[in-house]
């Protein structure tokens, strides 16, 4: 009776092992099918990829920095207009940010052509 019981248990163990292998295979197939379906749906919705989002985000940050720099330049120019043009450079090529800094400023050195404090 012992041998029959062991043989039945051995067959049952083999069956369970095979069933577990089949279950794992089915799990992989379902995951693959789900993933491809999700990618197809996201593609149809035109969802942005992470890399594209990060690139646009970096471009926006650079544009924001440039806008702030331009706003500072405009403020300096408006300040010079309000004071009657004191500190204006004599030549039209003096349009770099360092030329537009107020005289004696600590930013980029101030205007070398205007008198300091």
Keywords, please?
disordered C terminus, mainly alpha, 117 residues, rod-shaped, 3 helices
Outline:
With about 120 residues, the protein is mostly helical.
Described by its quaternary structure, the protein is single chain
Measured between the Cα atoms of the first and last residue, the distance is 111 Å
In terms of structural class, how would the helical and strand content be classed?
A: mainly alpha
What is the number of beta strands?
Answer: 0
Low-confidence stretches: 104-117
What's the overall geometry?
Answer: rod-shaped
Total tally of structural domains = 2
Largest β-sheet summary: none
Beta-strand proportion = under 5%
Fraction of helical residues: 55-70%
Order of helices and strands: HHH
Mean pLDDT: 79
């Amino acid at each position: 009776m012992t041998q029959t019981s062991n043989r039945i248990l051995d067959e049952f163990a083999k069956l369970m092992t095979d069933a577990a292998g089949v279950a794992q295979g089915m799990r992989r197939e379902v995951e693959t099918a789900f993933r491809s379906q999700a990618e197809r749906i996201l593609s149809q919705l035109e969802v942005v990829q992470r890399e594209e989002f990060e690139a646009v985000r970096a471009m926006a940050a650079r544009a924001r920095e440039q806008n702030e720099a331009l706003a500072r330049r405009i403020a300096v120019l408006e300040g010079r207009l309000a004071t009657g043009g004191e500190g204006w450079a004599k030549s039209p090529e003096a349009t770099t940010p360092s030329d537009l800094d107020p005289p004696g400023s600590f930013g980029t050195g101030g205007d070398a052509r205007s008198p300091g404090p």
